[in-house]
Amino acid sequence: MKFGVVVFPGSNCDHDAWFAVSQILGQPAEFLWHDAASVGDCDAVILPGGFAYGDYLRCGAIAKFSPVMGAVKEFARQGGLVLGICNGFQILVESGLLPGALIRNRGLKFICRPVRLRTETTSSPFTSAAAEGQVLTMPIAHGEGCYFAEQRTLDRLEAEDRVVFRYLDNPNGSMRDIAGILNEGRNVLGMMPHPERASEPLMGSSDGLLVLQSMAAALAMK
Amino acid sequence: MITPELIASHQLSQEEYARIVSLLGREPTYTELGIFSVMWSEHCSYKSSRLHLKKLPTRSELVVQGPGENAGIIDIGGGYAIAFKIESHNHPSFIEPFQGAATGVGGILRDIFTMGARPIAVMDSLRFGPLDDPQVGPRNRRIVAGVVAGIAHYGNCFGVPTIGGECIFEPSYNGNPLVNVFALGVFKKNEIFYARASGVGNPVLYVGAKTGRDGIHGASMASAEFSEESSQKRPNVQVGDPFMEKLLLEACLEAMQTGAIVGIQDMGAAGLTCSTCEMGSRGGTGVEIDLKLVPQRETGMTPYEIMLSESQERMLLVVEKGREEEVVQVYKKWGLDAVIIGVVTGDGMLRVEDHGEVVAEIPNRALADEAPLYDRPHTTPRRDAPMEAPAFHSQNLAADLAALVSSPDLCSKRWIWEQYDHMVRTNTIQAPGGDAAIVRVKETGSSVAMALDGNGRYAHLSPREGARLAVAECCRNLSVVGALPVAATNCLNFGNPERPEIMAQLVEAIEGMGEACRHFETPITGGNVSLYNETLGDPVFPTPVLGIVGLMKTGAPVTIDFKQPGHTVVLLGGLGTCDDTRFGGTEYAKVVLKSLWGLPPALDMDYEKRVQEAVREIVNQGLAVSAHDLSDGGLAVALAEASFGPAGVGAELEFSSDLRPEFLLFHEGPSRILISTEWPGEVRRVAAEHGVEALAAGITVSGRIAILNQGETLIDCEVQPLRESWAGALEASLRG
After folding, report:
1. Contact B696/A at CB under 8 A
2. Between B444 and which of B78, B333, B502, B587 could a Cys-Cys bridge form, CB atoms 3.0 to 4.6 Å apart?
3. Contact B137, B150 (CB under 8 A)
4. Mean per-residue pLDDT over chain B, rounded
5. Chain A hits for B428, Cβ within 8 Å
6. Is A169 on the interface with B (CB under 8 A)?
7. How far apart are CA B507 and CA A129, in angstroms?
């Protein structure tokens, strides 16, 4: 199995995601350049954190036009695993792969701190290694991570068991404490917290590794 | 036509102008006058400080590159090296806090990656006026919010963790905040790039952002006092684009891998002027450039404006002839401009052409190396504090402690550092809030610890002792986490050096710093001097800031907080000494007595060094469950801070001392560390081997802190309410 980590100009957690997959999870990983026309032979794609194209407009609003996003959409349509972390989540939302929007944090400030998340579903290729309701600690680091959607959308996400993580102490004002959601096909996850920053004890938590391990398990079953 | 008014408006003296005429053998052109004025500004030439900076130690076995390049370099073993430096952006941050601070971060990051090192850590040393100042409090609050947001904006987007620093409030910074930014990068020891133009005939490339009219004369602005008209200088402040800088970083590091780059320098202060003549001067060559080739984002720019622009995110490269295309292709991949604007020549001249006309022709050495050098008169250091202590007697020591931990200087700075991404790159082992910050180096399996320290109050009372104390504290902070201090960078923030009593502060501080750096074996590998930090004749406290790096094994860090009840608390180094005079610079004097007098705490450098050796051994042998150095606020504040951890564990300490209660609790004598341990016997054995006192002072307990002396209870209070006021104080005072 091979993980592809997309590099947009301005991605800055690309190396961290690559490191977590290749050095800690122990699976092959390679970088995918933003103008790539396909995701090549990758079996899973990670859209990493950062400030794609500077994010001087709405976060992710430019990245969605990059050639690689066309390839990622096609890959997702065919059922490929796509994990969007932080800026990657914002890009997935802008691209229409996930519903809703991510707006300025309630306090209007960038926040970097470890937060506690409740695992709301284990019925996904990203959380199968976790226990239902398991509380995970991972850091957030964002200025625009307040999840926002219409009531109808929120109701539907909940009815379809597509809310993957909720904050225990909502740091940014996200509606219904949502920290991460799945698409309808359950093969695309967007989350604001950084699993790659919580992938070894030295970082203060290894809980994020569960996400990567779940993905590896799902790929191994294919 | 060069008039005396024009010369004065360029902040050049008549003598300096005469020197220019004699060096050129003719009158300068307008463009040349501008070029000289920035290169000979205090900011670029160090003309007032150079003579004294020579007194600093700069070498050791680990120093690969000392002062004189973009950053100092230290060998960290395993074939790797680190580059680091601290720089000020004080003047711009006062005029435009957000952009001033942001471009301060941008500038120091370029200094690091222009040498080929990837930045892995940033820290900031900040000084502001009081937030509750009756007149200028609202402005100070705005400056704090702007500076913090600016640092966050730039560092977070660029993708470098901001992992620590310090933030102090003092009226002397009301009209002149200090924003000192430290950055550190890592690279292979055999892949270092220097800012030298060598190889006659090699092309000179301009890469990165286009040149605009922003920041013209920034270096000269940074070399003048503030007046009431300073807000009109806002166009002198540059505007930063961290996204562009991120692209520039990746493109430069990738271009360096081609092997075609001969020399590279960032365009920081004095922009194109400084980079061309310094690269030529260092390479012993000339540089010839044609301004019509320089990418410009505004129309109608004059040669003067192009040469003096301080537009950000630009680099100057010298490339091996014939391999230009390889390098240009890398920058194209990252969407950046990379154009040939000139060539390296053999005649040692900086020659600037514009549309076929030579607009400047100056020997590089005249600009870079033959700048004026002043031995400015210095008398006794300025001070406006009495020697004698006022009469004081505490009514309530617990209330004093509560006031101290919720004071702006000592309260939690979480509100600041949570706005910084301090984890990106997944190397942060000790995040902000510890005595020293630690990042691992993935490539070597070892870690680098770093700390920034400076105390303007101490330095105001005695610049020499204040500087020595800053070095000692910085080294102590590193030792507490188990790191061996190996090298330093400094940022010297002072007032107007043309005033002999200010110059005396500078000279004494440099000498004191030199003494301490020699003693603690931490050579100065570079840094920055920021003078003219005055507004309307009011200078800032002399503020020498030290940034020191230490080396250690990678592992879970020993943190400052108590972990569980029942551990023995040891005061390594002992209670120390104090008297009325030596109490005048403490936070207690500032916060409780609202006063400043006497002298800073006395420092015994030999004893300090032994304490540091002892604590390193204790920590590295795994004997310490927690370790925290005593500094601002003394023993009681250190004890409170150690109890503010997630476990909510405090301690009960008992002494038998003749010190009066205020001194025992709050004096700031150095060479002391509060340790909690399960192995007090072992800790005392190590201490004894180093000839260091280790007082078994008490035991950790749940939820309470208490200090007794000779059977009398001085302080006995709950941790929780104290912690809450400590945690929320900064945000509350920022709300005004």
Report:
1. no
2. B78
3. no
4. 95
5. 203
6. no
7. 63
In angstroms, the Cα distances linking B136 to B143, B180, B456 are 11, 22, 20
At A45, the amino acid letter reads V
Residue B227 has pLDDT above 70, yes or no: no
Decide: helix, strand or coil at residue B583.
Answer: helix
Quick check: B423 contacting A, CB < 8 Å? yes
Instruction: Report B:228-287 residues touching A (Cβ under 8 A).
Output: 241-244, 246-247
Which residues 6+ apart lie within 8 Å of A208 measured at CB?
Answer: A20, A136, A138, A193, A194, A195, A196, A197, A198, A199
Interface mutation vs chain A, best among B423, B558, B734, most A CBs within 10 Å:
B423
Length of chain A: 222
Q: Please give the Cα distance from B184 to B87 (Å, whole number).
A: 12
- Cα separation values, B387 from A158, B500, B580, B581, Å: 70, 21, 9, 7
What is the number of helices (H) and of strands (E) in chain B?
A: 25, 28
Task: Compute the distance between CA of residue B220 and CA of residue A129 in angstroms, rounded to an integer.
Answer: 61
Q: Is A167 helix (H, G, I), strand (E, B) or coil?
A: strand
Q: Give the list of residues 6+ apart from residue B246 with CB closer than 8 angstroms, or none.
A: A9, A10, A12, A51, B157, B158, B159
What pLDDT does B736 receive? 72
| Residues of chain B contacting residue A10, judged by C-beta atoms under 8 Å apart | 157, 243, 246-247
Q: What's the rounded Cα separation, in Å, for the pair A94 and A61?
A: 6
* ipTM (interface pTM): 0.97
The C-alpha atoms of residue B373 and residue B28 are separated, in whole angstroms, by: 21
Structure tokens at B659: 């010190």
Which tokens belong to B321?
Answer: 């002839």
Q: How many beta carbons lie within 10 A of that of residue B354, not counting itself?
A: 21
Task: Specify the range with the lowest mean pLDDT, choosing from B119-128, B528-537, B611-620, B638-647.
Answer: B528-537
pLDDT band at A10 (very low <50, low <70, confident <90, very high): very high
Radius of gyration of chain A (CA): 15
Distance from C-alpha of B689 to C-alpha of A128, rounded to nearest angstrom: 55
Which residue, among B688, B702, B710, B564, has the nearest Cα to B626 in the 3D structure?
B564
Instruction: Say what the pTM is.
Output: 0.97
Give the residue carrying structure tokens 């004002």.
A173
DSSP code per residue over A64-115: GGSHHHHHHHHHHHTT-EEEEETHHHHHHHHTTSS-SEEE--TTSS-EEEEE
Please report which confidence band the pLDDT of residue B233 belongs to, taking 50, 70 and 90 as the band edges.
Answer: low
Q: How far apart are CA A23 and CA B465, in angstroms?
A: 48
Rounded Cα distance, B698 and B623, in Å:
17
Count of Cβ atoms closer than 10 Å to residue A125 Cβ? 23
Do B672 and B479 contact (CB within 8 A), yes or no? no
Q: In what order do the strands lie in the sheet with B484-493?
A: B428-430, B437-441, B446-453, B543-553, B484-493, B524-530
Environment class of B394 (CB within 10 Å of its CB; exposed 0-12, middle 13-18, buried 19+): middle
Closest-CA residue to A165 (of A153, A144, A181): A181
